[in-house]
Design goal:
The chain is of the alpha/beta class. The chain has one domain: 3-Layer(aba) Sandwich (Rossmann fold). Helix content is 42%, strand content 13%. It contains ten helices and eight strands. The chain has an eight-stranded mixed sheet, sandwiched between helices. Helix 6 links the parallel strand 5 and strand 6. Helix 1 crosses helix 2. The longest helix has 22 residues. The chain is globular, with a radius of gyration of 17 Å.
Length: 280
Amino acid sequence: MQTVLITGANSGVGLATAKELAKQKYQLILLVRSQQKADDTKKEILKVVPDAKLDFYLADLEDLASVKKTADAIKLKYTTLDRLINNAGYSPVGIRFTADGYEKSFVANHLGHFVLTMNLLDLLKKSPESRVINVSSAAHALGNVERLFQKKNTKLSDMKAYGDGKLANILFAKGLAKYEKDSSITAYSLHPGVVQSNFGSDMNGFLKVLFSLARPFMISPEKGAATSIYLATTDILNLRFRNGYYFAKSKPASTNNSGITPESIEWFWEQSLAAAKGYI
């Protein structure tokens, strides 16, 4: 039985992904923010798959120490990890900063997942065909490489911050593909589509209006999960030569941000390592 870890599996695309992979007999490790979310998620999945193999861990992706502690606990129990789906996404509601000066949604969307992934590399390398799958968004087009890792940037808007985080998801996948190319790990990012879920319900300003207007045209969480499931389950022979690619509708897709370059990928990796120092 292969093991998959999913972040943000308590609702929306993450929950739909977890349910489908449970049906396909994966052992699920689910990272959630509270015991209540763990209990609710367990009930939801067991309704669909009564014999699902579920294991829950609590972590706050905005708190890098919490993420490291959880990754260490996972390493004590598991010897291999076959899939890591960095699914959790956070939309900023007002611009707030961590004690280190980074914008909070950037920490939750990227740095928390970076710390989690880097701490689990040894488990991933022990699987013959492990995959790291980052759920990004077409909103990466709104991101700006030059803003990434800026501290106390009071000129950020919610929309810019969200775009920066989704751009970071793509750069992270491309960096991981580059720096782990000689290992068993492959990495991908994806746009799930514009999904009908609770995501974005607490946004402010123009983003809230945009999501409200788009809601009637949104797809179901099950359809939104399709690309994550494809990347997790399809034969590796169909994916290995697309290591680092960005996907949409279960097919390779073009990114829409001129800041994604070999130089920016390398710079981004170095900055991520520096920001995560002490936690990996």
